[in-house]
Design goal:
The protein is α/β, with parallel strands linked by helices. The chain is 44% helix and 15% strand. The protein contains eight helices and seven strands. β1 (3-8), α1 (17-20) and β2 form a beta-alpha-beta unit. The termini are close together.
Length: 239
Amino acid sequence: MILINCDMGENLTPNPDALVMPHIHLANIACGGHAGDATSIMETLALAKQHSVKIGAHPSYPDKDNFGRQSQSLSEAALHQTLTEQVSALENLASSLGLQLHHIKPHGALYLDMMRSEQIFLQLLSFCQAFNQGKAQPIKLMIQGGLKDKDYQTLADTYSIELLFEAFADRAYLPNGQLAPRSQPNSLYQHTDNIIEQSWQFHKTHQQASTPNTLCFHSDNPVSVDALIAFAKELKESS
């Protein structure tokens, strides 16, 4: 069964986290870069623990003013430093609740840069490799699937990092498999039927090829939240 993931702990108003958490398998938790603070992290971790949801770090460029959606030209050392600060903050709070990190999924511009630049992708792999040193449960790196998956995994293998390939339930795709830019009209679906239909298409692909591993819904889009809940219920009933 395809796993459902969602970005959480982003201090949204209204906050959809309590509504969403019972229906997902993987929570990508904002850890201070684009959103989130100790209070929101603890609230999100508690919800994840209550519903047995695996937790992941959702770090970004340090840019709360733009919700992490503007690219930054950070040196490798600066990127490693901010990733360390964000992911370690989440890990420390998770540990206090007896939880372990399962994965990392970069946010916003950092995610897009990772998918467009092999150099940034390698820096993310290097960070994960360093972070995993001495860990009983190595963290995985979540990236967009359907774009030369084997090539990405070959690179990740050199760092001993397992990748999670995701698809987006609520985002429009370009013919080349890339996500349609958010600046493009209708890049983010606004009707639940469209999102649910695309979700089932990716689920069918997952059943045939095992990838994508997971399906992302965005909690900052109310229509996506409605579609997530509806799809999750249909998926549970069909399994």
